[in-house]
Amino acid sequence: MTEQPTSYERPQPGTDPADPRGALLRTPAAPLTPGAAALPAQARSTGETPPGPSVTPSDGSGPEHSQPAAAEPDTHRPRPAPEVIPAQPGTDPERSGPGGQERRTGQVTPPGRPTPMRRDGDRLRFVGAATRRIARGIDLDEIVMGLCRATVPTFSDAILVYLRDPLPVGDERPTGPVVLRLRRTDRIPEERDTEGGFLPVAQPEPSELSTLTAELCEVRPGGALAEVLRGVRPVFADAPAARAALPELLGEDGEAVIPAGQRAILAPLRGRRRVIGAAVFLRRPERMAFEADDLLIAAQLATHSALGIDKAVLYGREAYIADELQRTMLPETLPQPTGVRLASRYLPAAETARVGGDWYDAIPLPGSRVALVVGDVMGHSMTSAAIMGQLRTTAQTLAGLDLPPQEVLHHLDEQAQRLGTDRMATCLYAVYDPVSHRITIANAGHPPPVLLHLGGRAEVLRVPAGAPIGVGGVDFEAVELDAPAGATLLLYTDGLVESRLRDVWTGIEQLREKLAATAQLTGPDHPPPLEALCDEVLDMLGPGDRDDDIALLAARFHGIAPSDVAYWFLEPEEMAPGKARRLARRALVRWGLEELTDSVELLVSEVVTNAVRYASRPVTLRLLRTDVLRCEVGDDVPQLPRLRQARATDEGGRGLYLVNRMARRWGATRLSTGKVVWFELNSG
């Protein structure tokens, strides 16, 4: 799709129409000369701008380039360069003859048409304004659009921009043939009003340039186009090299869009190490042809655009790497542990700072428990993200050992000190037990969590603050609190509650009030939906009210009812497997799951047999009924069982093989006091 230039604006009353703001000068209406026909209909990319009246200041106060140099008063006073692209000047008495005839070429300039820039000062001002406009772009589309908007209509009537597909990044050496893709076209719209000003024009249909020219062009090695691109310097379309290269670039029908004479320039776009594309500048036949100095302008525009595109591609690659790094550092999906629902959000500090040190995690633990972790490493750099990844991995490993929360923070503190003396972080580690409806929390300098009760009351939990991770030589304290069914626990980083506009405790109070207000919308007996609650919490951030990245983890406690739990101790003796089968059978009958009796008895017997063979203390057996039936067998032996293929002559070694074939899922987890082997069966 083409876009109309932004230069076309209706002049406001009282403004000078010759003011260099991108609008074309107007002259009194006059018929076009017979030889100044527009581009052929099948080859035009833009419409023709009909002539209109010109407004010439009678007091001689027009723009500086509209008067001869000798007539300028106070020439010793410096004038600031305009920040906008200056319009092309009108006629110059030193270079134009009678009737608007250009002395150098003898060509008549039709009234109302843009004329070439007459003096070096005009060219310098145009190049300065155009390069500033191109340099403002930060991504590829902005830079290409800046080139198009800067040149149309001031320098040319239309432009085509071709870029390599794909664009090479940095020092990488592309393989395969060089392919150019038409990235953008721009042109002057045809419509004008009849009252002396330019009307805003609706978005035009796709330009005929884009329909007549080829979208893809493969550059043949040793061909005419390859030679022009290798030469780097812009060339006129009527040059022998360009006449052979343009059909290869534009396609079979593309030659028709090139006007006769020096009204088209082919400019290679060369980045830091290689040619990355080409630009074609076009003027209508009725407009003054390009001059030799215009090749220098085209070279400047092409150079600045190519270097900007190189930077944009590198920036895009860095942004992609940052996004991938942050994405892999955070959980791709949250687990679905028994008795709790989870939701999370992450927001970077800014679009230009996509990586940071904030993280969250949810780690399933033995006994249907789950560890909830949220942390914040100082800084918003790649280093912070790398340290965060190491601490998160360490926390996952420590959680797998089923250590108490305060011990996990102690080992994280030691790990942070091993990473460096200035590696500081805050962390909050909580373990939720759905059977006991209790939660154990330890804190290392992190903002306290907020608990939203089912009735709508929100409270900030009183958790000992502790010292940040990395300080060293400090103890961490854990507290155990009630976690009633229907309550929601919110863990967050300080970016949610602290900014330049408010301190952290003011933000925490606002968060508590926001949670309470949201809960009132659904009534006292229905907690708000978890995902919607996270969105409502983030809505408390106003524009410019975020200076840090944000990690948010919400946990809705459902728990497991005591009637859905069966728990026994078994002495490590030969009669234990038979007793375990009888106890499991009674529990299944009580729960109405008789269809699972055979499978559960067989698997329980195999797992309990393995446990009592090596255990020296009582073995535990627990059955949990939720959406699945879960069986857990614990003993005091730390060695984990391994699945192996028994030989035909072996009398044993087939217990875990049966568990693996019949169970929905199974696993073994090492505890501080031994291990737990568990399996699940579908209860429906």
TrEMBL record:
Molecular function (Gene Ontology), one example: metal ion binding
Name of the protein this chain belongs to: protein-serine/threonine phosphatase
Functional note: Primarily acts as an independent SigF regulator that is sensitive to the osmosensory signal, mediating the cross talk of PknD with the SigF regulon. Possesses both phosphatase and kinase activities. The kinase domain functions as a classic anti-sigma factor-like kinase to phosphorylate the anti-anti-sigma factor domain at the canonical regulatory site, and the phosphatase domain antagonizes this activity.
Domain of life: Bacteria
Keyword annotations: ATP-binding, Hydrolase, Kinase, Magnesium, Manganese, Metal-binding, Nucleotide-binding, Phosphoprotein, Protein phosphatase, Transferase
Region (Disordered): 1-123
InterPro entries, alphabetized: Bact_Sigma-Reg (IPR052016), GAF-like_dom_sf (IPR029016), HATPase_C_sf (IPR036890), HATPase_dom (IPR003594), PPM-type-like_dom_sf (IPR036457), PPM-type_phosphatase-like_dom (IPR001932)
Listed PANTHER family: STAGE II SPORULATION PROTEIN E (PTHR43156:SF2), STAGE II SPORULATION PROTEIN E-RELATED (PTHR43156)
Catalytic activity: O-phospho-L-seryl-[protein] + H2O = L-seryl-[protein] + phosphate
CDD domains: HATPase_RsbW-like (cd16936)
Domain PPM-type phosphatase, first and last residues per copy: 340-557
Compositional bias of kind Low complexity: 20-41
Enzyme Commission number: 3.1.3.16
